[in-house]
Amino acid sequence: MSSIILKFRSLFFIFPQKTKNKKKKKQAFCFLQFSSDVSMVCFRYGSCATPQDFEMYAPDASFEDPLMCAIGLQQIKSAFYSLSKVFSECKIVEYSVKENEISPGKQEILIDNKQQYKFLGRNIDMISLIKLNVENGKIVRHEDWWDKKPLWNRETVKLPLAGRIMELTRRGSMLATHAMMRFGKDPNM
């Protein structure tokens, strides 16, 4: 269990914080309490994601939240690089982690959290459940359930056609974001 946790030490790089003085970028540190032999793990929050932060994802991994559905590493990069373009500030302020071993080499990591965003000068608080499916030490599926509610898709809604429309809407949103973010190209560091 400890090796998996250590591989995820920079998982939340994706929530940028902007500062007026670009030379002095804010960094916040948050510690998670685990019941295993690794009692505390530090997650780093930076002003933007770095290419190294995506090494924990499998090349064909997927990411899905209520707004978009990314398939493949390049689209996942676009999804997270876009956060700093939309929000002036993003951070996870509280969270707890639970890890379940599904079978040898396969884990599910649940991160129950509270996120804070700043959009057009207004603070937005959101409760979320992040679900990570990990195979052989790499994330293969990353879901973000806002308000801890499952994503709407053809399997979770009563009318499968409505679920399929929601899936297509999220894919369209992702493709537009992917194009605007230069198709997942890493920003110049």
TrEMBL record:
InterPro entries: NTF2-like_dom_sf
Domain of life of the organism encoding this protein: Eukaryota
SUPFAM superfamilies, alphabetized: NTF2-like
Protein name as it appears in the record: Uncharacterized protein
